[in-house]
Design brief:
The protein is an alpha/beta fold. Helices cover 41% and strands 20% of the residues. β9, α9 and β10 form a beta-alpha-beta unit. α3 runs parallel beside α10 and α7 runs parallel beside α9. The radius of gyration is 20 Å and the shape is globular.
């Protein structure tokens, strides 16, 4: 009889924490963009207990080249990480927005977070998207309640957005970031297709050159953002992350640099979320 009671106690100890675990939900939404002349879909993570009458901080989570708004869920398992971190208190309850800025095939589908011929995405993001989602989900609304992060193309987009709009974000977390394309890390060939234009836009919006050429006022504005650069030791884009960190340090802009074991893949980015989400949370007002 005592053995049975002991087994029951052990079973309860295992099951009770699991049943107490809190779960957020992910919804797919869209808005009609006049800037892009398209219906733009996005995923939104709403934390456990989400109540639209309460206000929440917001995190914009950007995907990479050839991916779309659903990939952070489908391959990055984002919601499981967010659930765990918010349930444990490591991350404040926040709304997480995953916008669409790409797809396949990259030569025929627009990709990218910058303005380019026929795809003025930066204008859309700041002029239409942010106001729409923050009003609808009662989130963000100010620099101190807004963060941006992303991987690869989205990591570069996050950095450039915070460089060009430092008044809009409290923090930036760049994973395996595509910050420049001087070394032809991504090749498009001679044809001026849609991949050609996104590569040209990455060069024109080089995060490296931005810091190198920034005047004193711009540097001071960048200091108001908390920066975290995260890249694998065998990632083909590692040299760009290291160069950006060194340049920022030389200009007196504080940033965290982490070089972990890994390559340019989803295993790396999934684990990066466990650092990225608490980092954003710590830097909200």
């Amino acid at each position: 009889m005592k053995l049975k009671n002991l087994a029951l106690a052990v079973l309860c100890a295992v099951l009770i924490p699991c049943t107490a675990f809190s779960w957020g939900k992910v919804e797919t939404d869209s808005l009609a963009s006049g800037v892009l002349a398209a219906q733009v879909r996005f995923n939104v993570y709403l934390p456990d207990g989400y109540d639209a009458s309460n206000h929440y901080p917001v995190i914009y989570l950007l995907h990479g080249l050839s991916d779309n708004y659903a990939t952070w869920m489908e391959r990055g398992n984002m919601s499981a990480v967010a659930d765990e971190l918010m349930a444990s208190g490591e991350c404040r309850k926040a709304v997480i927005i995953m916008p669409n800025a790409g797809g396949r095939p990259t030569r025929k589908v627009w990709n990218g977070y910058f303005n380019m011929p026929g795809w003025n995405y930066e204008d859309f993001f700041f002029g239409e998207f942010i106001p729409f989602v923050e009003r609808k989900y009662n989130a963000g609304g100010s620099k101190g309640q807004r963060a941006v992060m992303g991987l690869s193309m989205g990591g570069g987009g996050s950095v450039v957005y915070c460089q060009r709009h430092p008044e809009s974000f409290s923090s930036c977390y760049a994973m395996s970031a595509w910050l420049d394309n001087r070394e032809n890390s991504v090749k498009s060939g001679e044809e001026k297709d849609k991949l050609y234009y996104v590569i040209r836009a990455v060069n024109e919006h080089s995060a490296i050159e931005f810091v190198r050429n920034a005047d004193d006022r711009t540097v001071e504005a960048m200091k108001s953002v908390k920066w975290f650069i995260d890249c694998g030791d065998d990632d083909f884009l590692l040299s760009l992350s290291v160069e950006l960190h060194k340049l920022m340090k030389s200009r007196g802009i504080k940033s965290e640099l982490r070089v972990r074991d890994g390559v340019h893949n989803w295993e790396y980015w999934h684990t990066a979320l466990r650092t990225a989400l608490p980092f954003a949370s710590r830097n909200f007002d």
